[in-house]
Write a structure and sequence with these properties.
- The structure is a single chain.
- With about 210 residues, this protein is an all-alpha fold.
- It has two domains: about 45 residues, no CATH class; about 140 residues, no CATH class.
- The protein is built from ten helices and no strands.
- Helix 9 packs across helix 10.
- The protein is elongated, with a radius of gyration of 24 Å.
- About 5% of the residues have low confidence.
Length: about 210
């Protein structure tokens, strides 16, 4: 609720200190009187104390160079990336670049799946469409578990090649169904319909 005739910055300045605890609260109350007179003052001093430039730079570098680990499922990778981005909310990286960095860190198999689901390449989609597609794939990937490659290798020896092959085929069939469904949904979405560049018809593409 916004109070009439009260500036938003003034509301932020009054409310933000109530979120402090521990060292942050001690730091706030030991500041010299009248050292903070605006919301910008509070942000600047808070970031200088708890997010020095070196830390911000390190987190930005980690965001841009993130990679999906061999033991990570798509769901785990997405959650780790979101936590990393939220740990530095002032990273000033555009939504488009955030999604591009996340995409570049994919395993080859996951990258192929999301390219197929996006109709060619995720980078050609708008940030809104790309994020929705990723979140849909992340949600659906949870049904496949979080078992890593090392566990799969042990399964070959533990349960025998025949049983392992059956399990692998089942997973491949499930993944194929998922990709086909995502691709169908993507083609059906009005916001992603392709038009002919000459006559704007939806009945054929320009190269046809």
């Amino acid at each position: 609720m916004k109070l009439a005739h009260v500036q938003e910055d003034r509301m932020y300045l009054k409310a933000f200190p109530h979120s402090f605890e521990g060292n942050a609260k001690d730091w706030l109350y030991y500041l010299a009187p009248r050292s903070i007179t605006s919301w910008d003052d509070l942000k600047r001093l808070f970031l200088a104390k708890f997010f020095p430039a070196s830390r911000t730079t390190a987190i930005r570098k980690e965001i841009s160079g993130i990679k999906q680990q061999s033991e990570e499922s798509l769901y785990e990778y997405w959650e780790r990336y979101k936590n990393l981005c939220s740990s530095c909310p002032h990273h000033h990286i555009s939504e488009h670049l955030l999604l591009q960095y996340f995409y570049e860190g994919f395993h080859h198999m996951d990258k192929s799946m999301i390219d197929a689901a996006s109709g060619g390449a995720l980078g050609n989609s708008t940030p809104t469409v790309a994020r929705k597609l990723i979140e849909n794939m992340v949600s659906n990937s949870q049904q496949f578990g979080t078992r890593n490659d090392a566990i799969v290798v042990r399964e070959v020896h533990d349960v025998g090649a025949s049983e392992y092959t059956n399990k692998l085929e089942t997973k491949i069939d499930a993944l194929t169904t998922l990709v086909n469904q995502l691709a169908a949904d993507q083609r059906a979405a009005p916001s992603t319909a392709r038009l002919c560049g000459i006559c704007t018809s939806v009945e054929h593409f320009t190269d046809s």
